Amino acid sequence: MRGLTVALVLAMSTFIVSPEAQAHPHGWIDLSVRVITDDQGVVSGLHQTWRMDPFYSLVVFEELQQVENASLEEGLDQLGKEIRDNLATEHYLTEVSINGEPQALGEVSEYTAMERDGRLTFMFILPLATPQPLAGSQLNYQVFDPTYYIEVVHEEEDGQPRDDALILHGEPACELSILPADPDPEVVMQAALLDKDESGEPGLGRYFTETGQVDCR
Hints:
Elements: H1 2-12, E1 28-37, E2 42-52, H2 54-65, H3 72-88, E3 94-98, E4 101-102, E5 111-116, E6 119-133, E7 138-143, E8 151-154, E9 156-157, E10 160-161, E11 166-169, E12 175-179, H4 185-192, E13 211-215
Parallel strand pairs: 1-8, 1-11
Antiparallel strand pairs: 1-2, 2-6, 3-4, 3-7, 5-6, 7-13, 9-10, 12-13
Helix pairs in contact: 1-3
């Protein structure tokens, strides 16, 4: 189990490369987000679902099946904890702002790892440190690997984000949108020059990330 844990930790803490850059993606994650609010429109967190790419998922499941005296379910439970613990050191690869003000994030205590349609799926609730009212405000979030090692994109259909890639639970009077990345050509070139076994400098991934937007103004 330790070998799998090390491999996963390395993969989960290094992340992304975009096909647009024609660089060398090491994998990707399909993302969907549910913004959690109460009946008064106060946002408390983001319920995130990450679906790992099929090849990476296959490797993980094969390694789990080779662990002696452990079921797949037991292995996934341990794996989920390792993913959570590793992501905690990286602020869960998530940034949230309200009206342009960065929001402090809490600790993840609700999470699960599972096999779904042949894909390793990790689901977790990322709370805000302090819940905030959304009425009259705009919330933005980004989920990305700073070193641009694995691509994180919202769930797509026919090249466009799916309607359920970003949903709002609670307050209905808001406009939801997923804004595409628009990196500078020089940054695209920088990513394209990465060798197949390289990751970018910290901060590169920010230029290639989508932005989820909840506009309640």
